[in-house]
Amino acid sequence: MSAPAADTPDDDLAALAKGGRTNTLGFVVRLIARIPFLVIATRLYGAEALGRFASALVLIEIVALICALGEKRGLAQRLSEGAGENRAAETNLVYDGLLLALGYSAVAAAILLVFPEPMFPNGMSGAWDIWLVATIPAFAVTEILLAAQAYRFDIATTVRARAVVEPWTISIGAGVFFYIPATRDSGLALAYIASIYAGLLTALWPFLRTYGLPRGWAPHPAMMARMSARAFPLVGADAIERGTRLLDIFILGLFAPPQAVGIYYAAQQIASLPQKLKTSFEPILSPVITKNLRIGNMEAIAAQVRQVGFWIIAIQLGIALVLGVPGEAVMGLWGPDYVAGTAALAFLLAAEVVASMAVVSESVLVYIARKRNLAISVGVIALQGLLTIALIEAAGRFALGKGYEAAGAAGALMIALATSSLVKALLLKKLLGAPVSNWRWPLAHAAAAAVVVGYAFTWAPEWVELVVGVPAVLATYALVIWRRGFDEADKVLFRKQVVPEAEAEGRPPA
To answer: Averaged over 334-359, what is the pLDDT?
Structure first.
């Protein structure tokens, strides 16, 4: 029997396109599922309770990401280097990561249980809020399980867990707990806990079917220590990347009232949808990158960064226009108090668009320039922190109101992420010796046409702006970008079959 042919660039494109289609579908499902939660949280619980809940999640999510040891991206490299074609060895390597993550997360949860004050700068809404610490081990383990599935090119599990089970569980839970007197005050926290554990179970079942239980596995403390040390740059990059989306809430919680945090969080939940779409490409991109790094094919990596980067920014810009042009009407859905967050929403959506290059560049930099990538990320989050404090303080000094305080935090995030994208793209271009930019001028043409159409609908009643104007903006943008921005390679993203199955398996076609 002849050896299978080596993977070709078309095979890589097929894998990336399949993951991209799955994640785009996941985004749509996540958008639909997120709306009920926002309606329930804003209308039933109010901006103050929502602000306290948002402030608590900042520390929970950062600590959970640290406890996951960067395995969202690092697991692909560990499996690629350490297991080869040995499936049993792959399984044991995954369980090494799971055990280490459980150990770190148990310690972190215990510390926060004893010293909960950093989680609640504005106080707790209810007695059950403290048990948010129980989500730390579940969150960390789920990250590793989903990364392991992604290494086998199973992105559907990520979509089920993150885009279906988690958002619908938190939406249903928030509604149910609100109408139970004993849990009403902590309803948002309890709903979040339920959603994280529901996502864990959703990821665990396919993982056990794919990898099974470990065989001949014996944890070694010395090896675990080396693994922890090697993971440090990845952990730092993951924590800082997520921290840039949470630092603004943390600082708002310190310098602004809970209502301002609640308004900002509502805007952020809408704007974070394209961010979820962007980061969900990472699991499918990591195995392709690590394979090409192993054979030293830097030109192929640069081409993949340009390709996936353009897909991401094209989709994200469309989302930003659809949600941002009718921004006042969108924020008004949650209640009149939230309209003050319209400017914050616009800045947050713009921030996700400019951040796309940083995220795709970092997908490679974490493997070939870990320390430099981490240093850049530290500088960026420091810049964001300083800008956020300065802009919030300026808004408060001039008594501009809660909306301007939220907009200041969002503007600081946009400037910081734009800086990160520029610096990381330049570094990656130098290291790969090839261009990596995802910008194409048809993006500007499509955006301009969509803005003109959307602005015309702002003169109509709000229900017309949302029901008719939003589809019109989307249709205009999609038509222009499809005809002027997408070439044949880009359109592969929307084709169900990219390469013949026989070719993808390295066999000659029949």
So the answer is: 87
